[in-house]
Amino acid sequence: MTTASSQDLTFSRHLFDTYDTYRDTALTHRRFKQADILPLIDKLKTDSRFDITKVGESVEKRPIQMIKVGNGPRKVLLWSQMHGDEPSATMAIFDIFNLLRADGEFEEFKTKLLAETTLYFVPMLNPDGAERYQRRNALDIDLNRDALRLQSPESVILKGLQQSLKPEVGFNLHDQSTRYSVGHTPKQATISFLATAYDEARNINPVRERSMQLIVGMNRVLQQFIPGGVGRYSDEFEPRAFGDNIQKWGTTLILIESGGYPNDPEKQFIRKLNYVSILTALQAIATDSYKTESRSEYNTIPENERYLFDVLIRKAQIMRGGKPVTVDIGINRYEVNVGNAATFGYRSSIDDFGDLSTFFGIEEIDATGLTVSPGQIHPDTLRSLADLKKYQLDSLVQKGVTTFRLAAPSRATTHLAPVHLLQPTTSAARPIQTGRIPTFVLRRGNQLRYVFVNGFWLDVSNNANKLGTGVVE
Ligand SMILES: [Zn+2]
Fold first, then answer.
1. Distance 419 CA to ligand 1 centre (A)
2. Could you read off the pLDDT of 87-134 as tens digits, one per residue?
3. In terms of domain of life, where is this protein from (predicted)?
């Protein structure tokens, strides 16, 4: 190990250990809106080290602001949340501002950083998408496929900044599916990196080589905190995407994708990893230390693969035409925005069925010797969702009651209790198969073992559970 890299490890460990001092406590979950970050940007206006500029407006006239800090010759442009439902790095950017503003710690680092670099941050490039917690902007355009046509004002802003500032390095900050695996392993790709290609042939010029070198350093740092949890995103050239074009336009481009981590649904640990890895990379830029990294190490990071389900039930028996069939059941839980997208529920789906022995589950259930059958429907019909309050739902679920029938149609698609609600016209007698919501029970003989409601489960034998929100179908 070289001296430079052991310094990186010490520095990043220090950032990790002191993170709580700098974490912005105004941001606690993923579905914040622009209105939540505007006061945080306003706070920076009182600090003369920060320059705030309005660089344009979104389709719906939300101001898009750039925060500049530092006076050094190396320009770095960092933008987050061009996809409105990908906010992990936005949170980390505000944590970074807190570190830069605070006194007392990391002084040597900050002095060097602000003398050697000028940092331009554009947090939440797609505020209209964030308002709805959706990928696309208010024109229903994916900004990351709009780098050539520039039909969205947000795309015009980003290209304009790259062209006018001509930054040496750019950070393109996203979230990816929580179900990406690191190679063909059960490990979630918690962070993935990409040194974006700038042409179909995926050539490596000095601009792209520097992306690889910076990623090699960030990967080494992250392995301390998430061993085996870093993936490499596919470098297939996408001619319409910003990362690919910005690399082509001469800015060394780093794509960071925040994936999943066990029991971190609001991605607060992943936010911390963003904070640590971005700051480590900024230090490497300020000191040029990354220039000694070997780009070949970049290729040793395993590629992202799709070998994960949220839940994988292995070797269950299911009756088909009077005969038992052995199947694995691959279940995914999908978030559904509720109300103004400030909260969410889940609607889960049986996404695969059959021999899934080459796959893994983030949660796995060995169902050897267990038989799948429908859960019980409660004999009462509910006049409304509020009627659920009258029941001891925990004890009903323990007895294998999974479902209630509604007397009148409900507009809700999810709800908080672990119960599957059937609209008046929805048939209950449908086979358990792909595309269906995973609500069923698993028995050994006559003995109830697992109760599944909307892809969440209870192990009746020991009360272990991953019970979540219910669904209305
Ligand atoms: Zn994205």
1. 33
2. 999 999 999 999 999 998 999 999 999 999 999 999 999 999 999 999
3. Bacteria
285 lies in the same domain as 314: no
Per-residue DSSP letter, 289: G
Residues with CB under 5 A from ligand 1 (ion): 83, 86, 174
On whether both 360 and 298 belong to a single domain, the answer is no
Which CATH number does the domain housing residue 198 bear?
A: 3.40.630.10
301 and 321: one domain?
no
Q: CA-to-CA distance for 178 and 308, rounded, in angstroms?
A: 9
Q: Cα(444) to centroid of ligand 1, in Å?
A: 44
Tell whether 15 and 147 lie within a shared domain: yes
Give the total number of structural domains in the chain.
2
Distance 177 CA to ligand 1 centre (A): 10
Q: Cα separation of 210 and 219, whole Å? A: 14
Query: Tell me: the pLDDT tens digits for 137-175?
Result: 999 999 999 999 999 999 999 999 999 999 999 999 999
Do 265 and 342 belong together in one domain?
no
Residues annotated as part of the active site: 238
